[in-house]
Design goal:
The complex is a heterotrimer of chains A (172), B (323) and C (499). With 323 residues, chain B is of the alpha/beta class. Chain B contains 12 helices and 9 strands. With 499 residues, chain C is mostly helical. Helix content of chain C is 76%, strand content 1%. The chains are: A mainly alpha (172), B alpha/beta (323), C mainly alpha (499). Chains in contact: A-B, A-C, B-C.
């Protein structure tokens, strides 16, 4: 991990992209958290205020980030690799849609009615399912219907969780 | 398992029946929001009462625990729901009377912006202390706390909790609002430290502390209700022990959104009344140390008056409390 | 020989046909919800409470207790197979358990987890029966100062837990601590780091964070490297461990049972430390610590025994003191009160058939769990053969429903997706999320106990050193930290010499 004399002679340069980015990430998070908690009182030792711990942790996070960045100049390490945006978008987007559809939502002027599990279930499976390279439409649709039915029976009836199924259609 | 299967079959039948016609309320399961985690005193009372109310209403009363921000998250959701009678809530002293003074940015108005339905039960509050605490009775306690306000440690179950609310009132009445208050996350950990003698005293509901008092792990100075409790007949009332102005009860009651149709309110009030008159339900509630509500308190007007009265009593102390 | 007489009474109660059936139902439901990510014992016990109204209190509590320890069994299944810790206690199981599954040894991992848990459960049952009453005193020795020191010790364990860079592990612990401060301040009610966004005012839910950084992020990572997931479905492996694996596991199981059992008694969820402590110790005393995190069987056997032992000894403060050490136990208090039994010190003398019946049922329940689980191991492992293109949408929908049902808040699902993105970012930056989760779990308690201790001591830090138990725990913490840091320092020096 550390350097031989030849590399050392090359002076400071980024030897681990990943660690450099990780260090900067921690610094950003620390600074951000510190700014967010800046209006919280520190309090005293006798009566610790709400700001004491968040601020201390934020400072330590940023400090560790600086150390990590400096270390990335000294030790060789991993490179950063590319992102799989398609998967991120479809999988996380699918989950978010589930949250919006399960019991309805109001964001500003947009009103999403309470669609329930019978809509939200197939939605999350179909959308996230697109993220697989070897996706087959027919299989995915059958699977979405089967899984949603199974989930409705399992969660709503066997475990009696209060989950709306399809209030607009069935009234529950 | 047979019960589960039966329930499943019944639920499916109801599910399909509910979608088709819309006759008299309720035609589908009613959601009752409990704004606290399952297993707490409010949740227990809600589940006992809902179990019987479901039979009268002919529809399942489903309990949904929506915890958060001292119970105000769940109440806000119930009160801002559509006033169709399918979303109601079980709240308590804290969420209905104390919340406006405790949380300045409260999103609902329990006095004017809500339909009170009825009181389900009250739980008396006890003043308890670690067993080695010097004062022997309530009078000595009052003098001791006033004289040693720098030394004494009070425990409570977090800002907005019943123990915090009731103890803040006590401290305000004693004129020592700034006593060292040690905050815990819930009654359990606070009680643990009281039993082991890390802190000196606390106020909490009888159901939480009675067994520890009976076992002699902690001592009770007084019960802040009009009568002694059958669960702890040896503990004097605050009036008997010399602090008559300290009267407070942690009651639990049902409310819904403002604008509920009158027939819906009437159906719910009748169902609640029937549940409270049922011997089995009553026995369960009494075992918890619950004080059964009077006929007046079971009505929307009576419950609303109770909410208003306690709000007026608590708000000066709570607004001034160190937060 | 009171204990024998008491246990006879207990078995007499627990072996009645009705109670056996209830115990089985509890264990079965527990296993099911444990396997389903997100749906935890808290929600299930709350929902099933009314169903138990019809039966007598002993039967009801036997069933509800079965759900709780059954869920611990089931939780490890999900941790091993899909790398999602359903509970704080199964976080460490993901480290080596999932690696074993990737190497085609899922069956063995599940088998060892089940057998280790069974052993721990048996020992814990005897432990509760024999020492329940005297051990209660231990719970009372722990005040805020002791608790703070215990949390500090736990965090030092987390450093040892780290794989790879210790500096990065430190970063993750601090990040976890920082995340734990999000939400309303307990003492003043002020909002901290919430952006004024109401759903954040109660802080971040453990299930939301764990499911995001483990569940969702893992799906994203697997979608990126198709090879990684193919390995999982390639081989199934044996179900039962062979002789050499059993030999490797025996000592970790014994140590894990002991550690988990002791920590389980402590108030304030001391049980979460059990699996972490067990893992730390196994890693430290192993001849070749580098195997850990790469599918070491000891890393499954020890922590799994510890979490099961802790799950059971957590009943000690509840049954003997009436004080619940964690959220599930608080719910058990509710269950007991609904049935007209107010938990407290008198339960043992006033309702001996309840006390001993429950203890006896725990042993029976553990036996049932092995019987339920071992054949099911085959079924679970078969599930891994489902093509990944169908498996991950299924994981996703289970996670979504599970998270929604924790608080019935749809916005929690969106938060989880956000933490999924966050977790994916952490993976890209080469961070290991396990220490972050431990920091998060311990952070809230750490702050709470530190503030309580300082209020009681009127601002004197000496309170942590003056109290002997607290001082002892801090010394252990320093020693653990020193042991963890020294080799890495000396290793760097070695590397310099080699080059």
């Amino acid at each position: 991990m550390s350097l031989n004399p030849i590399e050392q002679a090359q002076g400071l340069r980024i030897r681990s992209q990943q660690d450099m980015a990780a260090g900067l990430f921690m610094v950003v998070l620390g600074v951000f958290a510190f700014l967010l908690s800046s209006d919280l009182p520190l309090g005293s030792l006798r009566q610790i205020g709400p700001g004491m711990l968040p601020k201390s942790f934020a400072v330590i996070c940023a400090g560790l980030g600086v150390m990590l960045s400096l270390a990335s100049l000294r030790f060789n390490g991993e490179k950063l690799t590319g992102w799989a945006w398609r998967g991120v978008f479809l999988v996380l987007g699918g989950a978010c849609l589930f949250g919006l559809a399960i019991r309805g939502f109001d964001i500003g002027p947009i009103h999403i009615p309470q669609l329930g599990l019978l809509v939200a279930g197939p939605l999350v499976i179909l959308i996230s399912g697109l993220a697989a390279d070897d996706m087959k439409w027919k299989e995915l649709i059958i699977f979405a219907i089967a899984m949603t039915t199974a989930c409705a029976l399992l969660f709503k009836y066997a475990l009696s969780l209060p989950i709306p199924l399809a209030p607009w259609l069935l009234g529950i | 398992m047979r019960k589960l299967t039966l329930g499943l079959a019944a639920a499916i039948t109801i599910a399909f029946a509910g979608g088709v016609q819309a006759q008299t309320y309720p035609t589908r399961p009613v959601t009752m929001i409990v704004p606290f985690a399952a297993g707490g005193p409010t949740d227990i009372i809600a589940r006992i009462v809902a179990d019987h109310m479901s039979k009268t209403l002919g529809q399942q009363l489903v309990i949904e625990n929506v915890a958060g921000a001292g119970g105000t998250t769940g109440i806000a959701r119930a009160i801002t729901a559509a006033p169709d009678g399918y979303t109601i809530a079980m709240g308590h002293l804290g969420t209905f009377s104390a919340a406006p003074a405790t949380y300045p940015g409260l999103k609902y108005d329990p006095i004017n912006g809500m339909q009170a339905i009825g009181l389900a039960g009250g739980t008396p509050i006890l003043i308890v202390a670690r067993k080695t605490f010097e004062p022997k009775d309530l009078k000595e306690f009052v003098t001791y706390v006033k004289a040693n306000s720098e030394k004494v440690n009070e425990a409570h179950a977090g800002l907005g909790s019943v123990s915090w609310t009731t103890c803040t009132l006590l401290k305000a009445q004693l004129g020592v609002p700034k006593i060292n208050a040690v905050a815990y996350r819930g009654t359990g950990p606070a009680l643990n430290d009281l039993v082991s003698g890390q802190v000196d005293f606390m106020c909490d509901q009888i159901v939480s502390v009675a067994e520890q008092v009976k076992a002699g792990n902690i001592k009770a100075y007084a019960i802040a209700s009009k009568q002694r409790s059958p669960a702890l007949p040896d503990v004097p009332t605050t009036a008997e022990a010399g602090l008559p102005e300290y009267q407070i009860e942690a009651w639990n009651g049902i409310a819904g959104p403002k604008g509920l149709p009158k027939d819906v309110v009437d159906r719910l009030v009748a169902a609640l009344d029937k549940a409270l008159n049922d011997e089995g339900t009553k026995k369960r509630l009494l075992e918890l140390g619950t004080v059964m509500p009077t006929a007046e308190e079971r009505t929307p007007a009576g419950f609303a008056a109770l909410i208003k009265r306690d709000a007026d009593r608590l708000s000066p102390a709570l607004s001034a409390a160190p937060k | 020989m009171d204990m024998i007489a008491n246990l006879t009474l207990g078995f007499g109660v627990a072996l009645s046909l009705q109670n056996l059936a209830l115990c089985f139902a509890g264990c079965f439901i527990g296993t099911l919800i444990g396997v389903l990510p997100g749906v935890g014992p808290i929600a299930t016990i709350a929902i099933l409470l009314p169903i138990t109204f019809g039966v007598d209190p002993v039967g009801a509590l036997i069933m509800l207790a079965g759900i709780y320890y059954g869920a611990q069994y089931g939780g490890s299944t999900t941790a091993i197979l899909v790398n999602i810790p359903g509970e704080a206690t199964s976080v460490v199981t993901t480290l080596d358990g999932h690696q074993m599954a990737k190497q085609g040894r899922a069956g063995v991992a599940l088998g060892v987890a089940a057998l280790g848990s069974f052993f721990a459960g048996c020992v814990a049952t005897v432990f509760i029966a024999a020492l329940g009453a005297p051990l209660t005193k231990l719970a009372l020795l722990f005040g805020p100062a002791e608790y703070f020191s215990l949390m500090v010790m736990g965090l030092c364990f987390a450093v040892v837990l780290a794989r790879g860079s210790i500096l990065k592990a430190f970063c993750m612990i601090m990040l976890g601590l920082l995340l734990s401060t999000v939400g309303t301040d307990l003492e003043t009610g002020q909002e901290r780091l919430t952006f004024g966004f109401p759903p954040l005012s109660d802080g971040i839910d453990f299930a939301v964070l764990a499911m995001g950084v483990f569940g969702f992020a893992e799906v994203l990572r697997n979608l990126e490297n198709p090879e990684a997931r193919d390995v999982v479905k390639a081989k199934i492996g044996r179900l039962l461990p062979n002789w050499s694996e059993i030999k490797q596991s025996i000592n970790p199981v014994l140590r894990g049972t002991f550690i988990g059992g002791i920590l389980g008694i402590l108030p304030g969820n001391g049980a979460v430390l059990g699996p972490f402590a067990s893992y730390t110790i196994e890693k430290k005393i192993a001849k070749d610590p580098s195997r850990f995190g790469r599918g070491a069987i000891e890393g499954v056997a020890g922590p799994e025994s510890a979490n099961n032992a802790g799950a059971q000894t957590a009943f000690i403060p509840l049954l003997t003191l009436g004080i619940p050490p964690n959220a599930v136990m608080a719910l058990m208090v509710g269950a007991m009160t609904i049935h007209g039994i107010i938990p407290g010190p008198q339960v043992m003398t006033k309702n001996p058939e309840l006390f001993w019946g429950m203890i006896a049922s725990m042993w029976i329940g553990n036996l049932m769990l092995v019987i339920i689980n071992l054949p099911l191991v085959g079924v679970w492992v078969k599930l891994l053969q489902v093509p990944y293109r169908l498996m991950f949408p299924a994981i996703l929908i289970f996670c979504c429903i599970g998270i929604y049902s924790v608080n019935n808040q749809p916005v929690d699902v969106a938060f989880t997706a956000m933490f999924g993105l966050f977790g994916y970012l952490l993976i890209k930056l080469g961070f290991e999320p396990a220490p972050m989760l431990l920091g998060f779990v311990l952070g809230k308690l750490l702050e709470e106990k530190m503030r309580q201790a300082l209020i009681i001591s009127r601002g004197s830090f000496m309170t942590f050193i003056e109290r002997p138990i607290s001082a002892g725990l801090l010394i252990v913490a320093v020693v653990v930290l020193a042991i963890a840091l020294l080799p890495s320092i000396s290793k760097k020096r070695d590397e310099v010499f080699v080059e």
